[in-house]
Amino acid sequence: MAIDKNKIEQAIKLFLEGIGEDPNREGLRDTPKRVAKMWEEFESYREMNMTVFEEVGNYDEMVVVRDIQFYSLCEHHLLPFFGKAHVAYIPDKKVCGLSKIVRVVNKFSYRPQVQERLTAEIAEYLEKELQPKGVAVVMEAVHLCMAMRGVRNPEAITVTSKLTGRFLECQKTREEFLNLINSHKKI
């Protein structure tokens, strides 16, 4: 579904009026255009293509990209949630460029979302594209809908996970993944 910048601009202007602001005052005058441009930028992440390499030199051990910073928008309150994603897969004849894992996280993050679905969509996409021996995704996030409203608890962190294949079936593999994402040595 394509972004309709005119509708976004109209909606933001109405929103500003609805909360008692003057959308024509200096600080807000260009806000509808800025918001539409932001969503246009987010839309560009959805169009990414997965680059897959089949020549992996028989590599069949875990590939982990951890501490991927992500930002999303709670679909219930339209407030941000953000945090870190940890993604792993075990290749079966195919690997992807490491930056593509970050792009996959962005592909599904930059839209109104719930963390549970976001976690599953990342894992399912990697399963489909790479056909690996297993995928693991763990996401840790702060939700502003809980931090600044409602229960007003800014310290609460929500953790979700989706495991497939060997990560789900083999406790040793799962433990190795969890140890790797929880070791906080910086390179």
From TrEMBL:
Gene3D superfamilies: 1.10.286.10, 3.30.1130.10
UniProt keyword annotation of Ubl conjugation present: no
Domain of life of the organism encoding this protein: Bacteria
Residues where Zn(2+) binds: 74, 77, 145
HAMAP family linked: FolE
Record-stated family: Belongs to the GTP cyclohydrolase I family.
The protein, known as: GTP cyclohydrolase 1
Source organism: Sulfurihydrogenibium yellowstonense SS-5
Upper classification of the organism: Bacteria, Pseudomonadati, Aquificota, Aquificia, Aquificales
